[in-house]
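Hi team,

Filling in the usual template for the complex we talked about on Friday. All components are listed, including any nucleic acid strands or ligand strings, so the model treats them as one assembly.

SUBMITTER: L.P.
PURPOSE: interface mapping
COMPONENTS: two
RESIDUES: 662
SEQUENCES:
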Amino acid sequence: MNTALDKPRLFRYTYEKYRKVIVVFLLIVFVFVFGKIALPTFLSVEQVFMTVKLASFTALFGLCQMIVVAGGGGGLDLSVGYNATLTAVITASLMDGRDERLAIALLIAVAFGIMIGLANGALTSYLRLPPLVVTLAMADILQGIVNAYVAGKAITGRPAPILVSLAAKLTGKFPNILFVLIPTAVLVTLLLNRSKWGQILFGVGANERTAHLSGINVKKVRCIAFVVSGVLASVIGLLLLGNMGIAFKDMGSNYVLPSIAAVVIGGVSLNGGSGNYLGVILGAVFLQALTNMLIAFGLGDAGKWMTFGIILFLVLSFYASNRRSR
Amino acid sequence: MDRVTKEKGFPLTRLFFKPESSSMFILIVMLIINIVLQKNFFETKSIVRNINAFAPLILLAMGQAIVIVSGGLDLSSGAALSLFTCVLTTVMKQNEPITGFYALLVTFAIALMVGIVNGIGIGYLRIPPVIVTFATSYIWLGIALFLRPTPGGETVGWFRIFYRARSVEGIPALIRTMDNFIPPALILVLIGCLLWFVVSRTRTGRYVYAVGSNMESAYVSGIDTAKTQMLACVMNAVFIFLAALFFVAQNQSGDARMGGPLTIKSIAAVVVGGISLFGGRGSIYFALVGAMILELVSKIIFFADIPNAYQTLVSGIIVIVAIAGPAYVMFNKEKR
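RESULT (copied from the run log):
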């Protein structure tokens, strides 16, 4: 494809594609430098790794989100966090801190993910219901199942030690969760940009009609995107359980909207047809760095959320906006 | 489009084939179940209690519906509601009745600002509504927490007029007797309906639908799409303001986190009311029906002795059924 482009145009093409990634990266650097100036202890290797570690869960949920978003058709998956909660709550009592039960937990997680993803995908693509409502209602249903499951009793069980060391522990200063995130990122980037599947997904998202005329089963592709998102979300639920050590009722729900924010900040259009996982990861890191900085400043809840909202609004208005040029 | 062209046919049959008829049907079923389960359903007391319980969600859902019909979405409505309750209770001083008026004015001004900020994000900057109102919800939450870190605050005595007018001292006897039959919550809802009734007769009302159903053609037809979406957001804020009046009168306090769960509920109510999330379709008044359905469902769950834990589960299923049912019928029609 690139052979048709001469050098300057290739450069511009690459630049356009990665412009927002560069912007997010600069934003992150800015947050850290600003934090360092105001608060000398803010910038350190530990601090950076800590930020990345905390951000990695938002980034992983952002992957689910990005795949569904890239498929177009107003795709969004608001059920990811709840899906993760359900998996974590149910597998926690099952694993009960034993490694040999991890395989069966993983199996259950994948099964849950497929079921939830299929339900989301079938309702949105085959019945053509708006993904926002379907996944919202799905979120309610999943949270409802969790509520009913834990009603009147304590949630018991611990994650398998492997999960704990994978999600929560550090190797030296290096958080182990990055051993999950980095290979995932490389694999996803390769799959999306160098494989048939990526092209099909982007093709469906960019122009449903063209894709259909090219012989692609649009509905099936979108349905599969939801299934992939569901399976990933369930598996992330296991990692989240490993990180937290215990399961609780709303352990995953707080990641849902930040994951969408990370996708948008990462430069992925919510209209579909594009995707850039590196950007999404950086978007998640930016959100986390911003939160950390505001906490480090000791602003308290009020100041923290107000500033977070204002900065997010400003960042969005600078480059997620689609202003009309007159 | 069916809004613009004059529809033919006998009114009743026309009504039956409207997309909203399924939500009307669900509402009737829910009402019947409720009447069966609750023995004193038709007593004035329980009707008043029901209206009081339903009013906040009805107001939020109607506001949300206007934004959704105009092609937007408001994830910040619950946070805005909390913010308004905090502002009201901060400005008011218990022993100075005049502060009640100041509170109303200040909060109304803030409501307009909230609407304008959301409107700038959705309309003028054209940031995806999901994400921009997510950002603003943090701003409202932050300001609300700044004003009121813990729930509380003071209200003036006469503020209860928005909840139970007869408990206000020195109120005219006429209003006192009227209050036994017409609760203030109903009047707030009626004010909301009237507001939309007036707006829907104006050009703006038409524009809201035009912009929501096809932004590009509305734009090239010379409609100021950005302004229309902003006005929709401002109207939404006014509806939230009305709901805030009720909450503060009822609870006598402000709470920075009380509105959170209501956001999702209001969107669900809009959807159950048969309003398309893609914008441009559906009747704003049916948000009221949707909100009533959701509230009746929670009541049924309460009366049927189903544990409270199942409430979210059931409401989620109801939303899916309410939107999947009509879509499934359409799907079969297309196949033939």
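MY TAKE: Chain A touches chain B through 51 residues (CB under 8 Å). The longest strand of chain A covers residues 170-171.

Thanks, L.
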